[in-house]
Amino acid sequence: MALISANAPLPLQGTYNTRDLGGYPAGPGAVCAGRFLRSDQPAGLGEGDLEALYRYGVRLSIDLRSGEECRRAPSSLRGYRDIRCEEVPLLDNLQSSLAAGETAGLPDSMGALYVSLLRDSQPSLARALSLMAGCREGCVLYHCTAGKDRTGVLSMLLLSLAGVEEAVIVADYAASEANMAPFFAKQRAALEKLAPGGIPEGAFSSAPENMEMALAELRRQGGAEEYLRAIGLTGGEIGALRARLLAE
């Protein structure tokens, strides 16, 4: 079996996991570069990083973090030139619980969390995807804190809609663990102070089986296009997303 390589992060100073979805094989072609960037939180970007992202084409930023996360680490993109910044919280209640040191009732695995997100966070997913579909020019950067979980599920939906093979989607997801290792080391220490009972180990990993669980749930719901229709996207929005992903 050929080795599947995930896209490398952009050479930015203030993030670890900012990656283009472009270049992955999709049917007879490939996902277009310069249309979608997945990322960890852009909260420490200097002028050089901001200018680099602007030159890359970023004109819309979608922040998937909770309100509390946004307050603790505001996005550096907010207010920069004409970049539009939107907040679409995913898993807001879960993040509030972690911040308060409450770990009881957390899903058994990150894969179970992703399945729950697909089932229970449909309005927020639909809002984020609708914003993406409405972005006619430039590149969309979407992010959570680590660019792994919430960002990973949204990336799965986009890549699945484009027709990217599941093994490639899993490899794209799995790359976050190594990319984010320096950040996770600091985050683990901070969270363990808040939650003496311990943080699930999966919070700091991107094991392939977690994304495989999410993909299995997506198949159960009829695949990407059927899922997007079910959560409220119009045919026009789905077509616009596919065109952004695939049209040169």
Quick structural gist:
With 248 residues, the protein is of the alpha/beta class. It contains 11 helices and 7 strands. The relative contact order is 0.18.
Structure report:
- With 248 residues, the protein is an alpha/beta fold.
- The protein has a single domain (19-246), classed as Protein-Tyrosine Phosphatase, Chain A (Alpha-Beta Complex), CATH 3.90.190.
- It is built from eleven helices and seven strands.
- It has helices spanning 47-56, 67-72, 92-99, 110-120, 122-134, 150-162, 166-179, 181-194, 208-220, 224-230, 235-246, and strands at 19-20, 25-26, 29-30, 36-39, 58-63, 84-87, 139-143.
- β2 (25-26) and β3 (29-30) form a beta hairpin.
- α5 crosses α11 (235-246), α6 (150-162) packs antiparallel against α7 (166-179) and α6 packs across α9 (208-220).
- The mean pLDDT is 91.
- Residues 112-159 form the Tyrosine specific protein phosphatases domain.
- InterPro entries: Prot-tyrosine_phosphatase-like, Tyr/Ser_Pase_IphP-type, Tyr_Pase_dom.
